Amino acid sequence: MDTRSLPDDSASFERLRLLAEQKNAALLRSEERYHKMVEEVEDYAILLLDPYGRIMNWNKGAEKIKGYKEAEIIGRNFRIFYRPEDQKRQIPEKLIQQARTAGKAIHEGWRVRKDGTTFWGSVVLTALHDDYNNIIGFSKVTRDLTERKVSEDKIKQYTKELEAQNRDLQQFAYAAAHDMKEPLRKVQFYTSALLEGIGARLPAKEKTYLERTVDAAHRMQGLIEDLLTYTRISGEVPAFENVALTPLVAEVISHHQETIASVHAIIDMAPLPVVPGISFQLRQLFDNLIGNALKYYHTQKTPHIIIRSTSDDNKHIITVQDNGIGFEPQNCEKIFELFERLHGRESYPGTGIGLALCQRIVQNHQGTISASGQVGEGATFTITLPETTME
């Protein structure tokens, strides 16, 4: 038709009609592409449900995940995908109701395929509305997450077994260490008695052997006591309470007063925070750190220990710094390993359990501990503890 011969109103009408046809055609093409895209998706089961939960359409992903052909499933209620026990608990109905009232329902659980096997499905159910906000149906998107679920369950099982093995190991270590105390006391008693009784009459070589036996027994006693402390700290965690660190650390310092005086050490402690924790464990933590700083002092310097605290990002950051003999920077993690010693037993006594014990205590308090140092320059231990105190 030649629109140039039409009146102006007729020409305008024809232009509008053509424009509407073009828009409708574009909309149809867009809808076709959308439906084609939904139909071809294979990793997700995408369904359209009517307001009562009956299945209205079915894509390739639904066929792949659930096993039904489209002709077998259209018109059936989506309850068919749920196990009998879940149907009895009315989980499908509850999800529909939740989507109806809240607009969306999200759920994960076991679902049933056509062949009776199950898979772990993650479901999003969304209510669909008309122009008057009436619910006209629901979209349902399901993803098969069975591999993830199986992996998570295996990790949980391994964790459970590992925790049980750790408890058994701790109990064994505690029992073994405890049982060794009595025969060790007898070794100490008899060797000390021999040394005091006939030690002066023994040849020098035999006397040296006996003295070494007494020294080894004393070291073994220290190791047993440290092992007992470590297993006790590693066991069940008591209830937390608010612990004021300033008086607690002051008490620890007073217990080291004799050593402090003998090496002329200076201890500079700023006010410390109140933290949620276990009092006796925190006392053990600072006792070990201060004891180490006093033990590994530099003979050519006046020992100086600085204890400071700051707060950042809801955490207390506490540092214990000394100017002692220090250690190689590459050993900053190694020193926390059980029985690890960076210095010879002849010069510095100990069992190598102290810093491992410190790490376990800090872990019990949901915190962290790290170390830094330089040989001849000293060491710094940095502890972070949660800031929140108990009401």
Query: What is the distance, rounded to the nearest whole angstrom, between the alpha carbons of the first and last residues?
Result: 85 Å
Order of helices and strands: HEEHHHHEEEHHEHHEEHEEHEE
Radius of gyration: 37 Å
| Approximate strand percentage | 15-25%
Helix count equals 11
Task: Note poorly predicted spans.
Answer: none
| Quaternary structure of the protein | single chain
Fold-level CATH name of the largest domain: Heat Shock Protein 90
Give the class-level CATH name of the largest domain. Answer: Alpha Beta
Count of beta strands: 12
SSE-based structural type: alpha+beta
Rounded mean pLDDT is: 82
- Spatial arrangement of strands, main beta sheet: 2-1-5-4-3
Percentage of helical residues? 40-55%
Keywords: Kinase, Phosphoprotein, Transferase
GO molecular function: phosphorelay sensor kinase activity
EC number: 2.7.13.3
InterPro entries: HATPase_C_sf, HATPase_dom, His_kinase_dom, HisK_dim/P_dom, HisK_dim/P_sf, PAS, PAS-assoc_C, PAS-like_dom_sf
